[in-house]
Amino acid sequence: MSDTVCFRLENDTSRESLSTVLFDALAEARGVEPSDLDLCVYHYVDPSALDGLFDSSTPGICRQGTISFPVETFQVTIAVETDGTAEVRVEPHSPVSEERSNPSVASANAP
After folding, report:
1. Which end of the chain is more exposed for a tag (fewer CB within 10 A), N or C?
2. What is the domain extent for residue 72?
3. What is the mean pLDDT of residues 34-58?
């Protein structure tokens, strides 16, 4: 699938964890059921750390912020607002080639 997948979570104490929603979004982006996703999320982000980073279960403490990281051929962006609303966005992207990420390789390959 080549479209952007976006899940929005409202501030709700019964909502799923961000890591669970991330897993669901990655499965949808690949066009498979979550149970059929053959991807180890731990290779890209620690799900427990992600959940803890934006944990809003403590009364009076608002955690907000944005984190973005690559997962295979996708760019994942998770944004959490002060009211606890969260958005998990999975967008297709091309990995940076070795030539673009390492200028010495590009100049070494130049004629």
Report:
1. C
2. 5-109
3. 86
